[in-house]
């Protein structure tokens, strides 16, 4: 019996056909996305829905003397069927490209690079995971979503580039609900399931759930010491990733970190941020066809490198460093601090323990000033002990304060937070973040 072709082999077969189908001076680039994902939904600690999604698609770009157009093709996994779909797409593009103007910022990579990565760590056994979740959720109202499986990316060009990346990962995103309607939110994600680590995450969530029994502590608007857990800090960093490190946004003076990169502001020397592709789930090449590299974005509070895509390089005369077209980090890592996990409450003393932030937006983008809401498990702490939950409140503060002048400590332990997004398909984007103690957080209402 003939062994079925792997996804990588199917992709390479389509690329080989495309290279033969070209007519000079045509060029092409092609991107490939695929997943085989198991999804399990929980309600009241029990499995309510389970299924598997297997899908693959191809994005084909045809270039002819500076003019180009793209089309997405859904693949069937049958070589003959997929080849015909790609052939139809190529014909459609050949009809379209002559109608378009020349793109002055098109910058193709002429190098015939090759890259092949398979992060094939064994995925956790589903039966084992379900058993651990059921036991951990005994006696509490758990609502959650578990996703697991390989995600694949491919890239090829008529210039001879060929890249393949496949990574196994899982993501369990859950909440524990109290009978009064409040909840504690938590997650556990990665490439290797660690039963002890999962049990620790669940135990912390259960301990926080118990505090929701207590009457809420009422706070007036004002300035408070605060601890931002990694999930809360992720919301702050996600806002900064929207243009903060983008060469295009910086060149057009639209970046929220314009003052940082302009040398007019600094963050705390404790803050170092890297785009750390080499030890992440993300591919080592961009969808634009350039190899990616680790980058130092912020070093000890001062601006370092930018994320430069091919279009920004062409428009502003910069050097490409493999950034995607969005020029947003996909493997952001913040350097750890020295605060031990066991000493967080002691270091905080009296103030707010904030597990999550929600609905963030800019109240003053040029000043990197953010507003948003506390949500889920936010607690009032006195003398290093949690005393009571705090109702949802709005904060309004500057990143130059939270991660700058008012940053007191970062935790030695960091948490890997993998994107839980399933729009179009699962994602490999991640943030590796510590928790942060700040001397002052401004609550407005």
Overall number of strands: 20
What characteristic shape results from the CA principal axes? Answer: globular
Number of individual domains: 2
- Rg, rounded, reads 24 Å
Give me the secondary-structure category. Answer: alpha+beta
Share in β-strands: 35-45%
Main β-sheet description = 7 strands, mixed
Unreliably modeled segments: none
Q: What share of the residues lie within helices?
A: 10-25%
Average residue-wise pLDDT: 94
- Number of helices, where a helix is a run of at least 4 consecutive DSSP H or I residues: 10
Q: What is the string of SSEs from the N terminus onward?
A: HEEEHEHEEEHEHHHEEEHEHEEEEHEEEE
**What gap, in angstroms, lies between the N and C termini?**
68 Å
Characterize this entry briefly:
This protein has 445 residues and is of the alpha+beta class. The protein has helices at 7-21, 79-96, 126-136, 195-211, 230-241, 247-251, 258-261, 310-316, 344-348, 399-405, and strands spanning 26-43, 46-64, 67-74, 114-119, 141-157, 162-177, 183-190, 222-228, 273-275, 295-299, 302-303, 331-334, 351-364, 369-382, 385-389, 394-398, 407-410, 415-418, 430-433, 436-443.
